[in-house]
């Protein structure tokens, strides 16, 4: 049986057949990486190098599974969405089908990050929130260019 890292690496490569780790807590079907079963898609390979990551965390272990997945791929665009939207993608919805929902989430995150940037008291945190705003804006730009 495979380890967590082997299972995630196999998912990241998109070349290995479906597999799971030795105790079944993490598995993949080539496109989707699951944590503790198919009810929690941790990450999904989307079109054109886009990778979706689940923004909902249920336990330290699921958070670690998502983190391991994130560090194992270099997506064109990384999009964090809640489980509800992840399930829609698993079931066959295209990015264009969930685009408006994702844009609303990211625009809300931008407002939140701008508020945090405005309240920064240190140069370091100012740099952190400026970087975060740039990353959020990249996703919004990508999604807006789809139309």
Q: Could you describe the 3D structure shown?
A:
The structure is a single chain. With 147 residues, the chain is α+β, with helices and mostly antiparallel strands. It folds into two domains: 1-91, no CATH class; 94-147. The chain is 53% helix and 16% strand. It contains five helices and six strands. Strands 1-2-3-4-5-6 form a six-stranded mixed β-sheet, with helices on both faces. A hairpin with a 3-residue loop joins strand 2 (26-28) and strand 3. The protein is globular, with a radius of gyration of 16 Å. The model has no long low-confidence stretch (mean pLDDT 93).
Tell me the count of domains.
2
Poorly predicted sequence stretches spanning 5 or more consecutive residues: none
What general outline do the C-alpha atoms trace? globular
- Report the biggest beta sheet as strand number plus sense, adding barrel if it closes: 6 strands, mixed
User: What string gives the helices and strands in order?
Assistant: HEEEEEHEHHH
Strand numbers in spatial order across the main sheet: 1-2-3-4-5-6
> Helicity, in percent?
40-55%
Strand residues, percent: 15-25%
Average pLDDT taken over every residue: 93
The N- to C-terminal Cα distance equals: 44 Å
Q: Total strand count, please?
A: 6
Set down the secondary structure blueprint.
Layout: H1 4-13, E1 19-20, E2 26-28, E3 32-35, E4 41-45, E5 50-54, H2 60-72, E6 77-81, H3 83-90, H4 95-118, H5 123-145
Parallel strand pairs: 5-6
Antiparallel strand pairs: 1-2, 2-3, 3-4, 4-5
Helix pairs in contact: 1-2, 4-5
């Amino acid at each position: 049986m495979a380890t967590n890292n082997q299972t995630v690496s196999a998912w990241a490569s998109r070349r290995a057949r479906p597999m799971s780790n030795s105790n079944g807590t993490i598995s993949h079907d080539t496109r989707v990486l699951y944590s503790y079963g198919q009810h929690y898609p941790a990450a999904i390979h989307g079109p054109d190098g886009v990778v979706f990551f689940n923004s909902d965390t249920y336990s330290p272990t699921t958070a670690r599974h998502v983190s391991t997945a994130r560090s194992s791929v270099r997506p064109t665009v990384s999009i964090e969405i809640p489980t509800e939207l992840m399930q829609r993608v698993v079931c066959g919805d295209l990015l264009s089908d969930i685009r408006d929902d994702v844009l609303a989430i990211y625009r809300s995150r931008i407002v939140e990050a701008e508020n945090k940037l405005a309240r920064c008291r240190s140069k370091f945190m100012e740099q952190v929130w400026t970087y975060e705003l740039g990353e959020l804006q990249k996703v919004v730009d990508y999604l807006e260019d789809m139309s």
